[in-house]
Amino acid sequence: MSSNSLSLTSRLSEARWIAGVLFVLSCFLWVDQERLSVFVVPAPLPVHTFLETVTIVIFASVFIVCWNAFGEVRKKSSVILAVAFLCTAILGFFHTLTFQGMPGFETAGDMHKSMSFWLISRSIIATTLLGLAFDPEDSEISQMQSYGVLSAGLLATLGWGILVFAFPNLIPLTFIQGAGQTSFKVACETSLIAAHILAAVLFYRHALRFQIDKSAEHLHIDRVPLFLATVLMAMSEVYFSIYAETSDVNVVIGHTFLLFSAIAIYRSMVAVNIHTPYASLAASTNNLAKSAEELKLERQRLSRMIDTAIDGIITVDDKQEIILVNPAAALIFGYEVNELVGTSLNRLIPARHRETHKSHVQQFGEAGITRRKMGTHFEDFYVTGCRASGEEFPIEASIAHQLENGKRYYTVIFRDITDRKVAKEKMAKYHEQLSQLSATLQSIREEERKHIARELHDDLGQLLAALRMDLSLLQRDLSFLDRNKPTINSMDQLILTAITTLRRIATDLRPRALDEGGLFFALQTLQRDFSHRHRINCELIADEDQLTLDDARSTAIFRIIQESLTNVARHSEASDVQIEFQRSHAELKLNINDNGKGIVEEDMGKTSSFGLVGMRERIKAMNGEFQVLSTPGEGTTLEIRLPLTD
């Protein structure tokens, strides 16, 4: 249970205790009227006037708060309460003015007028509180409507005043000199008692259900004091219904109860609404103090972070004047912190870049982009700093800007990437050398293959052919053939196999069709041989004109397709392969598709995938583009683009 709920429960218990004690005490007084009648008020008029005046002042205070608490747009409940208590205060003043014994009001008829004003004012109070106890749905009303309700209430009060003063006989008699109150007056008091009891029950139920709302957006009504107020009003009306003379002590007791009731109403409406803005202001002040302390701690924490940051941090205003610099930034540029604060940022920029940098920063601020990275690519070192010694160095930086009180500020977080740039340049140089070495090795290997294939074909091939011719001559000697026929046939078969193997090895090393017929015929031979050897359907979509290329490109493309078909045979488990060429004026596009099991993405980057590495190197040597597209279970596609211009 929250502290507010505990407080509400405690206050409600206290209100019940007060109401219970006063009710028990009143019961003794109501029952023992003979003993109570012994006590007579010696000066009833001043006592009555004092008690009634205090009550009128309290009701007027309720009007002032309820009317002025919300400015031009008011709540319907606040307007009705304000007007009701204002009318009650006015009618209470008329009641006090006409009370028997006041100057000009000495007769029993004047007392009838006073009792009439009393009943009217009590009826307005009872009706208003009962209506509030039923807790109707509230809504906002305009200023014009508010003044309309106020005007209607004042006109009604004026009408009641005229009626009582000018035509008192139209109202049933309420007081008879010597006899006291009439049955009409007692009946009216009884009705008021019933109304107050019903309102007390409803307010008690509200107090159990609601907590006090301290916000300043709605009318604040504390139901606990209202419960006590309506109970006290009900008991006061009992006292007002049993007295016979104005000097009766019941009148004083009733007015005392009424005063306590007015104080409770004041507590429920006026005191709460006056206290709420101050409580809200105090809470806002405390929150502001806490926020200021938190802001101070945040500034200290931020200051420590900036001072200990490894990266340099510089903040400049829209005039490019440095207003903040951390020790790391000062160290990078070779200055002390106090040497840079208040100076121009141009001090840290090479002279040739200052105008360009100024225009870049201005465009950056006008574009509305709050962050931007600069110098993040190794190939783009346009962000250059200048040390105190005059040495220039590359910077990687991010810039952000913000508006504060109409002024624009730019904050740069940067780092010196001289070592990274040097390392990148070395890596690029090494990579270029490796690429050149790879291309040279490819060329040397291709030439070696060509030489070995030529030697095998021209020399060893001719020797094997001559050996077979000699063997054919021996086969003509019938006497020799009869004795050695199995041996001679075996030798002939071995020589034929050796010649076939020699041709295959020579073709793998360097197909003669590539030198004699060009790339198109070499690929046709490779296609037929691949399909025959591996039982995989291979389709070549190209024509001879598309593949009229120089020797270097022809050899590279042939080796790429040869390696691709080798990978298909070894790994893909495909049944169909398609090799398609498309040629334009500027480039040659080659697609190699299979319907195999595909390549897992992790396998593409393995260092052991020498086939893909070799293809990439060959394509890179020709300034081409190479892409592998594969989905497991759906095959693999190699896309190759080669420029045809140097």
UniProtKB/TrEMBL annotation:
Its EC number is 2.7.13.3. Residues 420-484 form a coiled coil. Residues 298-368 form the PAS domain. Pfam families: HATPase_c, HisKA_3, MASE3, PAS_9. It comes from Undibacterium aquatile. It catalyses: ATP + protein L-histidine = ADP + protein N-phospho-L-histidine. Its cofactor is [4Fe-4S] cluster. InterPro entries: HATPase_C_sf, HATPase_dom, His_kinase_dom, MASE3, PAS, PAS-like_dom_sf, Sensor_HK_TwoCompSys, Sig_transdc_His_kin-like_C. Residues 451-646 form the Histidine kinase domain. PANTHER family: NITRATE/NITRITE SENSOR PROTEIN NARX-RELATED (PTHR24421), OXYGEN SENSOR HISTIDINE KINASE NREB (PTHR24421:SF59). The keyword Cytoplasm applies. It is found in: Cytoplasm. The keyword Metal-binding applies. Its main location: cytoplasm. This is Oxygen sensor histidine kinase NreB. SMART domains: HATPase_c (SM00387), PAS (SM00091). Member of the two-component regulatory system NreB/NreC involved in the control of dissimilatory nitrate/nitrite reduction in response to oxygen. NreB functions as a direct oxygen sensor histidine kinase which is autophosphorylated, in the absence of oxygen, probably at the conserved histidine residue, and transfers its phosphate group probably to a conserved aspartate residue of NreC. NreB/NreC activates the expression of the nitrate (narGHJI) and nitrite (nir) reductase operons, as well as the putative nitrate transporter gene narT. The chain crosses the membrane at residues 12-31, 51-70, 77-95, 115-134, 146-171, 183-204, 249-266.
